């Protein structure tokens, strides 16, 4: 393995954070741009969610979270993080549904505001969650042998689609 567990996690989080950091601008654009102007960007973010973010959540749940549970003596220590993953998945489903209705929402302020609310909730949740997840990766890395860290890094190093 050429990349350490912290390197893999940091690289993935940096790629994800790059797009997450653009979400507030998209939320603001909902109030000033037309559905036609917004459609490509909404589609790009939707593709990012399904091609990058959701696979990342699954990889973290399979590779890192079980090891943290073991290290923390199975006290359900990762329950809050798993709960946040459920929230992110639900918000992504809302984004997909509302983003798909954007063309119908050009004159519907309520739909645009609903999508904007989803965007800002995702932004806030992901900003905190990803930092916390990276801290957990550091804990795991210090608590396992190099061989186990390599296995976990390989499990976390899922393919990432090119994100905008």
What does this entry look like structurally?
The structure is a single chain. The protein has 164 residues and is mainly alpha-helical. It has one domain (5-156). Helices cover 77% and strands 0% of the residues. It has helices at 5-20, 23-29, 35-63, 65-71, 79-100, 109-143, 146-156. Helix 1 (5-20) runs parallel beside helix 7 (146-156) and helix 3 packs antiparallel against helix 7 (146-156).
What descriptive keywords fit this protein?
single chain; 164 residues; mainly alpha; 7 helices
Outline the secondary-structure elements:
Blueprint: H1 5-20, H2 23-29, H3 35-63, H4 65-71, H5 79-100, H6 109-143, H7 146-156
Helix pairs in contact: 1-6, 1-7, 2-6, 3-5, 3-7, 5-6
